[in-house]
Amino acid sequence: MITNISARSFNIFTFFVYCEQLKTSIRLSMTNILLKYLAERHKSEIENNEELIKRAPVITISREFGCPANLCASELAELLSQIEGSDSEPWKIISKEILEQAAKELGLTPDKIEFIFKFEKRSAVDEIMEALSSKYYKSERKIRNTIKNVIKDIGEQGRAIIVGRAGSSILKDMPNSLHIRLIAPINYRIKEISRKHKISIIEARKLTLDMDKKRAQLRKEFAGRSISDVDYDLIFNTMNFKPIEMAEIIMKAIHLKGIIH
Length: 261
Fold this sequence. Notes:
Blueprint lengths: L1 H53 L3 E6 L5 H16 L7 E3 L1 H11 L17 H10 L6 H18 L2 E4 L3 H4 L6 E7 L2 H12 L3 H23 L10 E4 L5 H14 L5
Parallel strand pairs: 1-3, 1-4, 2-3, 4-5
Helix pairs in contact: 2-9, 3-5, 7-8
């Protein structure tokens, strides 16, 4: 009987030791798995960071109506080309090209989707009539999503200056990007619009206020929220700066932020 008890005790002890060894083995295995996971994750983060550093930069210029965004973009593209030399791929100024590319991807002509950038809204009746009358019908949501994807693709390709088109709202969080906002006092802009378009001050005031409101709404719709000054990296009062002066300051910011190397 004593022998049986001793044998039983030995078996229990052996099983206990086995369990402890198994627990230790599992802990070591889990530790190795965790260490391997952390090492792979660290490697992936390094590769991702290197990829972000290599990614070509993109610049967006948003503006209040009547501010010289296109002139500023042209001056900036010229400066970037001079700095990087003729061997580098030229910088592109992108605006209406977004509309053309989005229309192409939708299988439509640009005039079928330009209402988005004319700040017009389709009514429910218009949507229904368009859907019934055309086999090429695309919903407003589909059009907006396509435009957004086109802008994202341009941003990822880089070496582009996107003027308007809600580019800053869509590419706000894209790495290696810089977002510019051009503003000016309302009365200054009204006078500029009156002179440029050869219209009266009253007409220019109405047009300016209307366009400012519609552009703000467009940015909000693409961003999914209201856009404020903190969404931009640099804001210029164009009453006090010429386009070339703004471009030169933007170049300083580009170098300071390490956007181009």
